Amino acid sequence: MTKPSNIAVLVGSLRKDSINRKISDVLIKLAPSTLSLSLVEIGGLPLYNPDDETYPHVAWTKFRDKVKAVDAILFVTPEYNRSVPAALKNALDVGSRPLASNVWNDKPCAVISASPGAIGGFGANHHLRQSLVALNAPTMAAPEIYIGSADKLFDESGKLINADIRKLLQNFMQAFNDWIAANVKSQVALVASAA
Q: Which of 116, 139, 169, 178 would be a feasible disulfide site paired with 109, CB 3.0-4.6 Å?
């Protein structure tokens, strides 16, 4: 039996009762057995400053090591002021430096955004995709998921109560599984053609 792909889940919201964290919990449960998902926390990362690279923060090093060790990354984020939250942008910056050690390089990614608002974090979703292009992180183009009115999806205990959204998320995770497999095949083909 093939070992499941290890997937890092990064949640853009640091809020204790975060909608996006609840959605990430659902995604972890709905993932096919070929994927093993785990949260990678970003809230404790000191702000990126290139001057600190001489003696990098321990938190930076631990974060970089965690992301280097995974096969792919799933981002689940709210939208703050038509963009990604500062903590998530900081995580991208920390992981991208030094440039020769960019931890995002060639890691298949997927993005989901959710918001109480009607447009479901569309701006954050696309801003994040722009950054991932610059980081050479192949990002799944479709299906695109923007979950609006996300504050109405869970009951008081945090359980997802919308069957349509559950099915949408399950289909998304299967598509992400296929995206990861396709990227692994293309990387193997590139290595073989270079040999």
A: 139
